[in-house]
Amino acid sequence: MNWDRFAGEWKQAKGMARAHWGKLTDDDIEHIAGHKDQLVGKLQERYGMAKEAAEHQAEQWWGKMERALAKR
């Protein structure tokens, strides 16, 4: 998992993040700005998840995004 690439690809991925996690606001998306720790924190806050669950969801989602972005 390349989280450095995550920050670099955030502009393309943020719409997909908003669609995937409907409870994230536009302000949340801007605050996250491609940073894994920010995404995990917002998932915990908005969905009431434990940190481990939020990290797992973030990892799974970014894996899907990496594959989707690679196909372009």
Task: Give a verbal description of the structure.
- It is globular and about 35 Å long.
- It contains 5 helices and no strands.
- α3 (26-32) packs antiparallel against α4 (36-47) and α4 crosses α5 (51-70).
- It has 72 residues and is mostly helical.
- Helix content is 78%, strand content 0%.
- The longest helix is centred in the last third of the chain and has 20 residues, at 51-70.
- The chain has one domain (3-70): Protein Yjbj, Chain: A (Orthogonal Bundle).
Show the helix and strand layout.
Elements lengths: L2 H6 L1 H11 L5 H7 L3 H12 L3 H20 L2
Helix pairs in contact: 3-4, 4-5
- Identify the CATH architecture: Orthogonal Bundle
Helix amount, in percent?
over 70%
Q: Can you tell me the CATH class? A: Mainly Alpha
Tell me the number of strands. 0
Integer count of domains: 1
Overall radius of gyration? 11 Å
